Amino acid sequence: MALTVEGIEKRYGAIHALKGVSLSIEAGEVRGLVGENGAGKSTLGKIVAGVVAPDAGEMWVDGDPLRLRSAADALAHGISIVAQELAVVPHLTVAENVMLGREPRRGLAVDHKELRSRFLELSEQVGFSLDPGARLGTLRKSEQQKAEILRAVARDARLIVMDEPTAALSSDEARQLVAATRRLAAEGRTIVFVSHHLDEVLAVCDNITVLRDGRFVRTGPSESETADSLVTSMLGQHLASEYPVKSTPSRTGTPALKVAELSSSTGLRDVNFEIWPGEVVGIAGLVGSGRSELARAVFGADAHDGVVQIDGERTRITSVRAAIDAGIAMLPENRKELGLLLERSVTENISIPRLSSLTRFSRVSRSAERQSVGAMLEKVGVRASAADAPVGTLSGGNQQKVMFAKWLMTSPRIFIADEPSQGVDVGARARIYELIAEMAQQGMAVLIISSELEEVIGLAHRVLVMRKGQIVSELADESVQAETILGHAFGTAAAS
Ligand SMILES: Nc1ncnc2c1ncn2[C@@H]1O[C@H](COP(=O)(O)OP(=O)(O)O)[C@@H](O)[C@H]1O
Ligand SMILES: [Mg+2]
């Protein structure tokens, strides 16, 4: 199936995710789609597969215009997606998941024997070996993903979008997938292959398209590309001006936070680092490199092994409560998951971390609370009139500022911010950057995780680069540069 898209536009509120993207893919082609986190790859993939509707733009399939109304509609036209967020049915078996909607029947009943034999045929064709009878929910993500790929083939998709298909796979499994992808293309299927692993993209794709900041940058044949040429196009020019001036931390004496030999079942392996008071340390790395897992472990949200010292004292962080008591605060990646109670008022949300100290003196503290909350709202830049509004009614930027307010009330020693500017408009973003710089100036140790490299570079004094659950490189001051960070994140640079 040949695909052409032209002038694709997509906005999510204030975020302009795709800015007039046009491209053409030939039938039987494997097309790579690369770009930094947030470049718009997944959004484009979802638009092609009917999961997300574009705000503007046209699409043609085999020369005919096509306007998709839904993913089901796309599937009816032979287009399928294996998304980053898998769409499997956990309580059904592997074979049932793969054949979902295509179950062979005998009369009205599903013909299980036939279903199984079609499944095995399909697995052989694609080159995956999966146990057809296993409940999918009990399998590892990599196997669930294989089932999704098989399902796309079972549904006779002629164009398959694979979004980061190897992110959860071992290197062996990734090789199998690459081989399977080539086989699918050899049968005339068209594949859009989104991946952060440039070596894989170079190996499997005929041509590679680079997106940057929602824009099409260029398409080139894989033979004439290298990991370096792709990285250079992915980066382009960055603006540094919107960031506050950095202070100069001393990095002497006792670190505010010292982490040694940290490992976890979420994939962290022997992580060691320290942060001094007044320092902003950035964590960079690709999706799945372990950045958020590291933050969650230090914040006690996930269990871990290893040693954590705060101001030189060994501290056992066995829960979020223990972390908060030890002076750690965290702005989670997903505000809804670990952060805010959306139906509760701004004031209530800000008071939550200190609730234990408030209940004892409930009457006196009520008005004291309103006052201190008001002052804090002013500091972070949220209108005081918003104090009684449910947090869920605020914009993303204001919600994030409320999170800052909530944690600043606890006067933390260590502040962890996971994607602090995600889903935040430009104005709020500038204020958030200032708050982070101010916190460091006041002697807090700040750990920032961001998929936006320029944000890490703009805010951090030092950058730790993660890859596969480990810190593979540490860059400070002048060596904090995009090319260097990405080189380590992708594993194309020598370890330092
Ligand atoms: N459902 C959504 N709501 C709001 N913003 C979104 C949504 N999906 C993506 N975005 C934003 O759109 C931009 C592009 O995202 P995405 O297409 O996922 O990029 P990529 O896959 O290249 O990392 C990012 O800034 C992202 O935060
Ligand atoms: Mg993506």
Automatic annotation (TrEMBL):
CDD domains xrefs: ABC_Carb_Monos_I, ABC_Carb_Monos_II
Domain ABC transporter intervals: 3-238, 252-493
SUPFAM superfamilies, A to Z: P-loop containing nucleoside triphosphate hydrolases
GO molecular function: ATP binding; ATP hydrolysis activity
Keyword Nucleotide-binding: yes
Domain of life: Bacteria
InterPro entries, sorted: AAA+_ATPase, ABC_carbohydrate_import_ATPase, ABC_transporter-like_ATP-bd, ABC_transporter-like_CS, P-loop_NTPase
Pfam families for this protein: ABC_tran
Keywords: ATP-binding, Nucleotide-binding, Repeat, Transport
Keyword flag ATP-binding: yes
Name of protein: Sugar ABC transporter ATP-binding protein
